[in-house]
Amino acid sequence: MSEQKGYQLTHLQQLEAESIFIMREVAAQFGKPALLFSGGKDSIVMVRLAQKAFWPAKLPFPLVHVDTGHNFDETIQFRDDLANDVGAELVVASVQEEIDAGRAKEETGPNPSRNRLQIPALLNAIEKNQYDACLGGARRDEEKARAKERFFSHRNSFGEWDPKNQRPELWNLFNGKMDFGEHFRIFPLSNWTEMDVWQYIKLENIPLPSIYFSHEREFVRRSGVLLGKCEHITLLEGEAWESGNVRCRTVGDMTCTGMVESVANNVDDIIEEVAAARQTERGGRVDDKRSETAMEDRKKEGYF
Amino acid sequence: MSTDTKGYLDMDLLRFTTAGSVDDGKSTLIGRLLYDCKSIFEDQWEAVEQSSKQRGDENVNLALLTDGLRSEREQGITIDVAYRYFATPKRKFIIADTPGHIQYTRNMVTGASTANLAIILIDARNGVIEQTCRHSFIASLLQIQHIVVCVNKMDLVDWSEDRYNEIVEQYKEFASRLDVPHIDFIPISALLGDNVVDRSKNMDWFKGSPLLYMLETVYIGNEHNHVDARFPVQWVIRPHSDEYHDFRGYAGRVAGGVFKPGDEITVLPSGFQSRIRGVHDIGGDLEEAYAPMSVSLTLEDEIDISRGDMIVKQNNPPESSQQIEAMIVWFSSDASLVERGRYTIRHTTNEAKCLLKEMKYKVDINTLHKIEDDREVRLNDIARVSLQTSAPIHFDRYRRNRATGSFVLVDEQSNNTVAAGMIVG
After folding, report:
1. N or C: where does chain A have the smaller number of CB atoms within 10 Å of the terminal CB?
2. Cβ–Cβ of B42/A195 closer than 8 Å?
3. Between A255 and B28, residue with greater pLDDT
4. pLDDT for B224-261, tens place per residue?
5. Residue A285: which domain range?
6. Residue A63: strand pairing partners
7. Torsion angles phi and psi, residue B389, rounded to 5
8. Does A6 map to a domain?
9. CA–CA separation, B74 and B69 (whole Å)
10. Any CB–CB contact under 8 A between A52 and chain B?
11. Whether B24 contacts B123, CB under 8 Å
């Protein structure tokens, strides 16, 4: 990383050191951890940090992807290549299988989201594989419910989060003790901001899926959000497909990931854009707009 | 915010905590800092505006920016530590925003445990009150090196210099009993923005700098101990690959001092001695490692080392003992502290069983007086205790090193973290 000033680390070096520390704690404190990999930039940065934490050994945990079946093709290809490159085991939990087995029910409507359906798929994958700790790339600056979440976040045997009964976390002492059947969600990027993530991507020269960069695509404007054209979205009355240069600020389902009109086609331009942005990156997420505490409600049920 | 990457990479990090009671204007101050530093986005602002309107609040309620949980929004209170982030071209800031009520002492302690600086708010109309003392005492107990006392709502006392000086004197008298090396004072109006980001036009008698300038320039180079070399081993890296067949790296985060190749070290508790062969990260070999870097060390000799062991320099060992004297803050609402009770102690990467041998006294958090007649230690109480551990703990006094002088106690039945401790000897 960049040059040092005496015995002082820059803020990015401090964040990196903290995240690596957390990852090593997870490897040491838990029997069967896993890294939840979405294909988004945050989980890609997580993989990079995990490589650093355990170098020259391989990652001591698999990458687990909850596949909604509504993913961008680019994300899936990228995921497979990355797992292959770092030599990590890839485990895919399929939402389609949950629907087929009758454990999850598809939403209906003009943009049926499979966002919430990820919850049963994830919880079943955790139970089936007996993961006792799941590393996630969520950050506290993303959303107000996440601003209060711990690095080590306890889940009961139903996968539920109890925000009012969180364990205190002091200094760098993390308590991962639990009863059988419970698990932890662990967030090494808690203290990073969107800007930190982008600067780190630039500094470390980390490759990203192409949908983060400007490309031409057909989309529809719905409630102030641009949604990319795909088979899962039907037009409402008065709506029409448009075409233009867009890119994703976050990566989720095609039905809920809003795009922004942008010509930024490299990391430097994106950094410029992020610095000038007047909307949070989740501002384009339809899943968060469903209610004031949509994120907290999903998290309580076992969401990421 | 700095967009030029060079500048961004040169920024350092200041973590601070804010304390004040509900009506001191803490949320307004944080809202003001975030808003004036352009760290509030339009969609966040619109969401808060709309919720405020729905609730019938007269002005935009800035507290809604930080109070994210459903029950907090319903009850209009902050119940947990919220972390907020903002940056100026000079520095990156992490705010641990903690509620001020006495029942939330544990949250304040949590927020303060990682802070470099504490902002303490005083309502200019009320002056120094019990809560001010409590918040200051917690900052002192947690060894925060710098307190900034913001005398807020100066607009409501006609920007009076006399009133401000009176409060500064009140505070100084109380603070002479604290252990905080740097205390600064600023008269502000968080609501109107006076002396927060920009210099106040209403108080030209105040010659000091506005709050943000102070936060940007305060010295934080002495936050970590760079004298006593301490490396708690977190994890042992054994690649078992052809290329790194014999690699045996001890992974961890430097908790103090500086480690260089060639240094003569001792491993605790075994006492085995060796020399550092290399300091590594993924980029290759480093010249040195210091706190709080995460690295791995390799040694010249093959010795048995595992998680919980500590690598130190031969001429400067920490104290190693099974008897610990400490100040603790009790965190559990379900169970009080039990004398002769058994807990698990987590200290650095080490863990042991411990027996709470004796509770010596409690501290009245408002007056700093010892309480010797009330023996029950409940939620939010602060007490001086003696512990006996099942294996030696390698520690420094908390005053000397926060990383090797702190611990938590875990209840073996509930698995909950029931106390935080600071070692005094």
Report:
1. N
2. no
3. B28
4. 899 999 999 999 999 988 888 889 999 999 999 999 99
5. 209-289
6. A35, A90
7. -105, 155
8. no
9. 9
10. yes
11. yes
B8 touches chain A (CB under 8 A): yes
CB contact under 8 A, B80 and A163: yes
Give the tens place of pLDDT for each residue, A154-206: 998 888 888 777 888 999 999 999 998 899 999 999 999 988 999 999 999 99
Question: Who contacts B399 (Cβ-Cβ below 8 Å, separation ≥6)?
Answer: B143, B179, B405, B424
Coil, strand or helix: which one is A222? strand
Whole domain around residue B100: which residue ranges?
A: 5-217
Number of domains in chain A: 2
- pLDDT beyond 80 at B3: no
CB of A39 within 8 A of CB of A79?
A: yes
Most B CBs within 10 Å, among A4, A11, A45, to test the B interface:
A11
Alpha carbon distance B167, B170 (integer Å): 5
Interface of B with A in 241-300 (CB under 8 A): 241, 243-244, 247, 249, 251-253, 258, 280-282, 290-294, 296
Average pLDDT over chain A reads 84
Q: Which of B368, B275, B343, B357 lies closest to B313, judged by CA? A: B275
Backbone angles phi, psi at A64, to 5 degrees: -115, 120
Q: Collapse the DSSP code of A35 into the 3-class scheme (helix H, G, I; strand E, B; otherwise coil) and give the result.
A: strand
Q: Which of residues 297-336 of B touch A (CB under 8 A)?
A: 307, 331
In angstroms, the separation between the Cα of residue A97 and the nearest Cα of chain B is 33
Residues of A in contact with B43 (CB under 8 A): 279-280, 283
The two structure tokens encoding residue B224: 């970590």
For B:122-151, CB contacts with A below 8 A are none
Same domain assignment for residues A269 and A297: no
Averaged over B370-392, what is the pLDDT? 92
Based on the fold, state whether residues B169 and B39 are members of the same structural domain: yes
List the single residue in B with minimal CA-CA distance to A198.
B5
Same domain, residue pair B145 and B234 = no
Contact status, residue B183 vs residue B175, Cβ threshold 8 Å: yes
Tallying the residues shown for chain A, one arrives at 304
Q: What is the 3-state secondary structure (H, E, C) of chain B?
A: CCCCHHHHHHCEEEEEEEECCHHHCHHHHHHHHHHHCCCCCHHHHHHHHHHHHHHCCCCCCCHHHHCCCHHHHHHCCCCCCEEEEEECCCEEEEEEECCCCHHHHHHHHHHHHCCCEEEEEEECCCCCCHHHHHHHHHHHHCCCCEEEEEEECHHHHCCCHHHHHHHHHHHHHHHCCCCCCEEEEEECECCCCECCCECCCCCCCCCCCCHHHHHHHCCCCCCCCCCCCEEEEEEEECCCCCCCCCCCEEEEECCECEECCCCEEEEECCCCEEEEEEEEECCEEECCEECCCEEEEEECCCCCCCCCCEEEECCCCCEEEEEEEEEEEECCCCCCCCCCCEEEEEECCEEEEEEEEEEEEEECCCCCCEECCCCCCCCCCEEEEEEEEEEEEEECCCCCCCCCCEEEEECCCCCCEEEEEEECC
Structural domain contains residue B260: yes
| Number of neighbouring beta carbons within 10 Å of residue B76 | 13
Domain count, chain B: 3
Task: Indicate which CATH number applies to the domain containing B299.
Answer: 2.40.30.10
Give B84's contacts in chain A (Cβ within 8 Å).
141, 147
